[in-house]
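Hi V.,

You were right to ask for the full record rather than a summary. Here it is.
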Amino acid sequence: MFAAGWSACFIGAMGLAARDMKIALPPDVTVDAEVDLGTTDGAFFLQARLNVSLPGVEREVAQALADAAHQACPYSKATRGNIHVVITVV
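Predicted structure:
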């Protein structure tokens, strides 16, 4: 549930970033969020991977949108500094 919410929120944040950058998001934008629950030394931790797909958008522009979304998305803000997050433009 957390991954699904983060994915939807991240897409919304990319929409805001695209508007600010005057870029049109493709209709088939996707964010595949994967959140893992792990353990180390008897303690639990989370880690996440967000795979961002923006078909037809140049890689540099897509990366800039993903970076801006990561700064604005409430899920990203809530987890910043608390869990390891990798964002990949695919």
